[in-house]
Amino acid sequence: MITIGNKIKQLRHQKGMTQQQLATQLCVSRQTISSWETDRNIPDIETLTRIAAYFNIQVGTIISSQNADSVYLHKYQQCMMDIILAILLVERVTQLSTTFGLHWMNFIVIFYLIIFFLALKQANYFLNAGLIIFGMTSILSGFANLFWMGFGFRFTCFICGVLSLIVFAINVHQALFRKQCQLRKVNRA
To answer: Residues in domain HTH cro/C1-type (predicted)?
Structure first.
């Protein structure tokens, strides 16, 4: 978990500042900066506001326990999953196909809804496995013209499969990013 002290230290290092230089800017002592960075103390809300203003960021970025890049990736991932769900539902309701094609799309939609709810629960292992299976199944059914679905369903399956594999790639990137951050912490200690 990234603490407020770690965030302050990270921001200070990004600007190439010493503790003394930051202390001068914030009108506090160097020892105060040190106590924040080692998590012995935390700054009060007024000081957090000054820190945020100095580094041109929001206070929420400092007090958040997640890295800003990680939060951005999670929002992007959730947005992509919402788009996939919307595409599937709209296509299922608006496209005409054979009975078997409609049943296949029902299966695809239900399967994706299960994956979607796993994403809400943050069960990453099952989510990633589901995204891979869904992506490959959708892409293959789009190419194979499974159940004589027609071009609309085939195209929808293919696009949704590709998008789900992109979401999977985002998940893998997040996991690698977290491991890299943990390794940096271990190496610094």
So the answer is: 8-62
Task: Report d(CA 17, CA 15) in Å as an integer.
Answer: 5
77 & 163 share domain: yes
Query: Mind listing the pLDDT tens digit of every residue in the chain (189 residues)?
Result: 578 888 889 889 988 999 999 999 999 999 999 999 898 988 888 888 889 888 888 887 787 655 555 555 567 777 888 888 899 888 888 887 788 888 888 898 999 888 888 776 665 667 788 888 989 998 988 887 666 777 888 888 899 999 999 988 888 887 787 777 777 767 765
DSSP notation for 90-139: HHHHH----HHHHHHHHHHHHHHHHHHHHHHHT-HHHHHHHHHHHHHHHH
Overall size of the chain counted in residues = 189
**Interatomic CA distance for residues 51 and 59, integer angstroms:** 8
Q: What are phi and psi of 97, to 5 degrees?
A: -160, 180
Last residue of a domain, one of 45, 64, 83: 64
Residue span of the structural domain in which 149 resides: 68-179
